[in-house]
C-alpha cells in the first residue's frame, strides 16, 4: 500500500468520524472498518464516472449496510459526485443531501435506498438479473454494450436477515457471475459479539447457494482485497462472495473491536485519538482534508471518464452497425406512449361474460408484452394461479437470460426486493405477483419502492374470502388497509374488465409510483357503467334515477361493486333512490380536485354505505359518522366462497338492510 493510498483510505475514516461527531448521531464502526475495501473497489476495480452518474454501463455499488452511510458519502465527496464539505457537515440534518441512511433519488450516486438490513442484497440480485437480461438482448460479437458488475457491501446484520438467504439462493441458482458481494465480517452487532446469536459457517452457506467464496484475512491489505475482487471477476459461472475480516471502529483505540463503535459517535476525544493513531495531520481540526488527497481522487476519477469515453465510442459504432438494435434500445429506455395506450381499443376491449379479474389481468399482461418489450416479471411460484405468465417469452434462467418470465420460487420478500433492483437498474419495467394474503411478506420492500418512487407493479390475486376452501390463513382481511396506509402507492381493486385495464394502464404509465393490483379468484360480471373514469380512483358506475334528490350512496370496490348495484336495484323497488360509486383506488381519488370529489360524493348526502369484503379500517373518511360499512370484522373461514359471502353478510339482502337503516337515521 502506497503512502497516498493509505492517506486516502484514512481520509474516508476521518471524514466519516467528523461528520458523525458533528451530528452527534450515526454509525462510525462500519466506515472505519470497511474503508480499505471500499477504497480499493472504487479506485481500481469499479467503472463509474462522477461526471455522468447515470451512465448506462457503470458498475453498480449498493451499500446494503446503509447505517454506514458516511462511508458512501465520503466516497461520493472525494470522487466529485456533488457532495460538498458543507453537505458532509450537514450529515443527518433537516433537508441535507446526507441523510442518516442513503436515499435513492435524493443524493446523486446513491443507487438504492438502504436502511432495513439485507434489503440492499436483494436489490443487488435484481440489478445483476437486469444486467444479465439486457446483455442477452443487446450484446453482439465485439460489442458488449451491457457489460458491468453489481457490487454490494454489507455486514453480519445483512447476513442474519432472511431476505439475504432468499435472494442469494436464487442468485446462485441463476449463476449471476457479475454479482459480487463484499462481506464486512467483524463479528460485532449492537448487542455485542455475534456469537450470542450467529455462529453459522457463512461461507459454507454461500457455497451451498452456489457462490464462489473467497476470504481476505486482513481487511487493511489493499493488495489482497484487490486480488480477491479480480478472482471474483474471473469466475464466469458463479456469483462471488468475498469475506473481508475487519475490525469494527478500526483506528480508534478506545472503541475498535467493541459494540459501542457500531451506532454512536466516537466522542471528541476519541476522534482526536483516532486521527493521532492514524497519523493524520493536525488532529485537533475537524473536516481537515489535505489537498493531495483530493488530487489523488481526481486522478482516480479520470479512469471512469476514460472507461465511459471508450464505451460511448463503442456504442456509437454499435448504433450505426445495428440500427434495429439502436431502435430497440431506445424503446427499452423510453416510457410507454400513454396517449396511444389510452386510445388503444384492443387494450380496452370489453368482455361479455363473467371473468375473474386475475384472468383479465393475465390477458392485459400478454397484450402489453408486445407493446413493451422491456416488460419483465413473474411470480413467487404461483404464476398459474396469478395468471402472470407471458406466452412465448421464455423463462429467465442460467441457460436463458433472455427469458422474460421470472421464477422467484417461494421467496416473496426477496422477490419484491429484486423487483426494486430490476427497476433501479434501468431499461426494464418489472412486475411481481403472489396471493394478496402474502403481501405481508412483500411489504417491507413495497415500502422501499414507494419511498424510492419506483413504478413496480404488484399483482396480488385471491383478494378476499372468495378464496374459499383454503380458509382464513389464505383469506386476506387487513392487507388492503395496510397497503392503503403507505404513502405513494396506488392500491387498485378493479371490478371488471374495463377497470382491470385501467389498473394496468395506471401501472405501466406511472413514473414514480408503484401500483398494487388486487384481483379476484372468482368470476365477476361485466358492469354496463364501468369506464375509463376508473382512472380517477372513484366514479359513478350506476347513477340514481334522480341524482339531485338521491337518498344515499353505496360505495364498492372489486367484487362488491356488482353486489352494490344489485342492492341499488332492490332499494329502488322500495322507492329508495341511491347512487353506486365504484372506488377502485382511494389513492387516486384523493388526488382529484375538490370539485370532482364533491361531484362523486356530495357532502350533503350523508347516508353512505361502503361494501368491501376486507377490513373496514380506512372507510371512515368516506362514510363519515352517519354512514356504515359492510366489511369483514373478523377472520374468514374454510368453506366454498358462496357460503362464506353469505355467512359474512355480503348479500343483496344484508346490504339493503344496512342501507335502509342508514338512510332512515339520516332523515
From TrEMBL:
The UniProt record lists the keyword Hydrolase: no
Cofactor, how bound (note): Binds 1 Mg(2+) ion per subunit. Can also utilize other divalent metal cations, such as Ca(2+), Mn(2+) and Co(2+). Binds 1 thiamine pyrophosphate per subunit. During the reaction, the substrate forms a covalent intermediate with the cofactor.
Binding site for substrate: 27, 262, 358, 385, 462, 470, 474, 521
Domain Transketolase-like pyrimidine-binding: 355-526
Ranges annotated as spanning the membrane: none
Residues the record marks as active site: 412 (proton donor)
Calcium recorded as keyword: yes
Protein name stated in the entry: Transketolase
The organism of origin for this protein: Mitsuokella multacida DSM 20544
